[in-house]
């Protein structure tokens, strides 16, 4: 499984890798920030069209999280957004953590965000 809470997602290579994972029967869920998902180059619609479960978090502020929980036991987190600027221009960081207990905490946080987020049809 791959659960992602991401602020900005415009990197096609990452989207392609997630679609490939889904095609291998990996359960993929992504929560996007509302304003970022509304941006022209956001890939929320593309990954959703490929069958990946997405929700959009609309709140009083930004859903500014940037983390992944993999198989309930690995975490990727940091300042890194899934964008070309993050890859090529910005000073970004991404930390990989192998800790099942901490991953459980991140998974619980993801599930809270997922529960409060809306599908595209619920937003319209």
**C-alpha geometry:** globular
Query: What's the number of helices?
Result: 6
Question: What is the averaged pLDDT score?
Answer: 95
End-to-end span in angstroms? 28 Å
- Unreliably modeled segments: none
Order of helices and strands: EHEHHEEEHEHH
Strand tally, please?
6
Structural class: alpha/beta
Proportion in helices: 25-40%
Strand order of the largest sheet: 3-2-1-4-5-6
The largest sheet is: 6 strands, mixed
Strand fraction: 15-25%
Gyration radius, in Å: 14 Å
Task: Describe this protein's structure.
The chain has helices spanning 12-23, 34-37, 44-49, 84-88, 100-116, 120-123, and strands spanning 2-6, 28-33, 53-57, 67-70, 74-78, 94-98. It is of the alpha/beta class and 124 residues long. Strand 4 and strand 5 form a beta hairpin.
SSE blueprint and pairings:
Blueprint: E1 2-6, H1 12-23, E2 28-33, H2 34-37, H3 44-49, E3 53-57, E4 67-70, E5 74-78, H4 84-88, E6 94-98, H5 100-116, H6 120-123
Parallel strand pairs: 1-2, 2-3
Antiparallel strand pairs: 1-4, 4-5, 5-6
